[in-house]
């Protein structure tokens, strides 16, 4: 049952193209998560997800196995995210989807704040987190997203981005610093 | 609030701090950084603040992932084969026009593979063009021959039936034939369009006369 990614790739390349859908099922969640946090919009994230798996399928023979399949997939997805950001001129802040998973709108309401202080504050915080994350330059955002949400190691991130581990660390540091500044500003304004 | 900058200037252990924060420091690095924390207030303050940022980041959870629709591009070929299989035996000669389209698709996928990586046969564009032209003309000759043969035998068959049967049977047959023709014309039109787009894709100059050219 525990067939490895490499085994599935082998079977796909041998002509059993349906086997590839096992890889899609296995990795669609992380790829969607990565794309959503990079782009902020569900619709874009779905598109990137689709593009990523199609590109991976078409280029499967180029995958040499030097790094993990997932790293290769992350790389393809990040490239797709970057080209999408370039296309729309990286106007990230306006394009953040202000909805949570259940489609509820985030609102910066203060009238109701007394009614459900916890819930409201949590929602507002989550909204501020998205905003702060999307205000970061993409190079820093992607490192934070991969570390915090995908829980990749420094070495894996370095491999995906083809940069030294020390650069990964310094980008994380600077990214966290900028996040901290923004979020502390929000907290003192509360 | 501005002690962030002070720390950046005042302390050169930011990479160690990040490694420590994410639990990726080795035992000795950890011990060394903990010793540093005893002496450096800035790093201590920053470590706590970064921990808060991480807590904040964790508020953005993605509860679900939409199912990604993935259809392996190769399935088109099988679809076409099935389509041809659906025609009655005597009509398959005509339906082979569909097979020409299949050849075109296959040629396309050879070309696509070369650029996309799958296959990576290392063919030049000229080689692919030659392959496509040859495949198309071979298939066309084959189809023409099969078409002529089957049409001739069908004509003979039809003539025999004409003589043997009365007008009613004839009318029935005509109606049947007409229905099949409608289907085939649509199929041939599709195949021709595919042929056409391939030809313009490669700008291959070829004889455009088809035995069923009037069906356009
Ligand atoms: Zn320090």
Q: Can you describe this structure in just a few lines?
A:
Chain A is mostly helical.
Shape of chain A: elongated
Weakly predicted, low-confidence segments of chain B? 1-9, 113-121, 204-216
Which architecture of the largest domain in chain A does the CATH hierarchy give at level 2? Orthogonal Bundle
Total strands of chain B: 0
CATH superfamily of the largest domain in chain A: RNA polymerase sigma factor, region 2, helix turn helix motif
Mean pLDDT of chain A: 86
Average pLDDT of chain B, rounded to a whole number, is: 73
Oligomer: heterodimer
| Helix share bin of chain A | 55-70%
Largest interface: A-B, 51 and 40 residues
Number of helices of chain B: 8
Profile the largest sheet of chain A.
none
The end-to-end span of chain A amounts to 52 Å
CATH topology of the largest domain in chain A: Rna Polymerase Sigma Factor, Chain: A
Write the layout of secondary structure elements.
The complex is a heterodimer of chains A (190) and B (216).
Chain A: H1 5-13, H2 20-39, H3 42-58, H4 69-87, H5 92-95, H6 117-135, H7 138-148, H8 154-161, H9 165-189
Helix pairs in contact in A: 2-3, 2-4, 3-4, 4-8, 6-9, 7-9, 8-9
Chain B: H1 3-10, H2 14-21, H3 27-39, H4 41-57, H5 75-85, H6 92-116, H7 125-164, H8 167-202
Helix pairs in contact in B: 2-4, 3-4, 5-6, 6-7, 6-8, 7-8
The complex binds zinc ion (ZN).
Residues 11, 13, 36, 40, 42-43 of chain B line the site of zinc ion (ZN).
Describe the protein.
The complex is a heterodimer of chains A (190) and B (216). Chain A is mainly alpha-helical and 190 residues long. Chain A folds into 2 domains: 1-95, Orthogonal Bundle (Rna Polymerase Sigma Factor, Chain: A), CATH 1.10.1740; 109-190, Winged helix-like DNA-binding domain superfamily/Winged helix DNA-binding domain (Arc Repressor Mutant, subunit A), CATH 1.10.10.10. Chain A has 9 helices and no strands. In chain A, helix 3 (42-58) crosses helix 4 (69-87) and helix 4 (69-87) packs across helix 8. Chain A starts with a helix and ends with a helix. Residues 92-114 of chain A have low confidence and may be disordered. With 216 residues, chain B is an all-alpha fold. Chain B folds into 2 domains: 14-56, no CATH class; 88-196. Chain B is built from 8 helices and no strands. Chain B has helices at 3-10, 14-21, 27-39, 41-57, 75-85, 92-116, 125-164, 167-202. Bound molecules: zinc ion (ZN).
């Amino acid at each position: 049952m525990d067939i490895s990614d490499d085994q599935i790739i082998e079977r796909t390349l041998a002509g059993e193209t349906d086997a590839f859908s096992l890889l899609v099922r296995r990795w669609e969640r992380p790829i969607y998560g990565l794309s959503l946090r990079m782009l902020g919009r569900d619709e874009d994230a779905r598109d990137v997800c689709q593009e990523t798996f199609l590109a991976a399928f078409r280029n499967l023979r180029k995958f040499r196995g030097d790094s993990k399949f997932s790293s290769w997939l992350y790389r393809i997805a990040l490239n797709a995210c970057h080209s999408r950001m370039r296309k729309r001129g990286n106007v990230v802040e306006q394009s953040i989807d202000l909805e949570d998973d259940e489609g509820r709108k985030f609102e910066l309401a203060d009238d109701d704040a007394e009614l459900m202080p916890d819930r409201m504050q949590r929602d507002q915080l989550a909204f501020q987190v998205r905003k702060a994350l999307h205000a970061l330059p993409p190079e820093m955002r992607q490192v934070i997203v991969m570390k915090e949400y995908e829980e990749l190691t420094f070495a894996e991130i370095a491999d995906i981005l083809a940069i030294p581990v020390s650069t990964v660390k310094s980008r994380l540091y600077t990214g966290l610093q900028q996040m901290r500044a923004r979020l502390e500003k929000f907290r003192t304004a509360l | 609030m501005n002690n962030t900058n002070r720390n950046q200037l005042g302390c050169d252990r930011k990479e160690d701090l990040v490694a420590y924060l994410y639990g990726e420091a080795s035992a000795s690095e950890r011990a060394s950084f903990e010793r540093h924390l005893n002496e450096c207030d800035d790093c201590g303050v920053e470590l706590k603040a970064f921990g808060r940022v991480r807590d904040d980041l964790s508020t953005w959870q993605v509860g679900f992932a939409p199912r990604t629709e993935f259809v392996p591009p190769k399935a088109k070929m099988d679809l076409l084969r099935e389509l041809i299989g659906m025609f009655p035996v005597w009509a398959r000669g005509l339906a082979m026009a569909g097979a020409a389209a299949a050849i075109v698709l296959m040629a396309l996928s050879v070309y696509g593979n070369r650029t996309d990586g799958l296959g990576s046969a290392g063919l030049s564009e000229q080689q692919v063009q030659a392959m496509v032209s040859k495949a198309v003309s071979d298939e066309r000759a084959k189809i023409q021959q099969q078409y002529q043969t089957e049409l001739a035998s069908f004509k003979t068959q039809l003539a025999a039936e004409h003589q043997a049967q009365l007008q009613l049977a004839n009318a029935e047959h005509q109606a049947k034939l007409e229905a099949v023709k409608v289907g085939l014309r649509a199929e041939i039109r599709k195949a021709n369009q595919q042929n056409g787009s391939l030809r313009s894709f490669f700008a291959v100059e070829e004889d455009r006369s088809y035995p069923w050219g009037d069906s356009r």
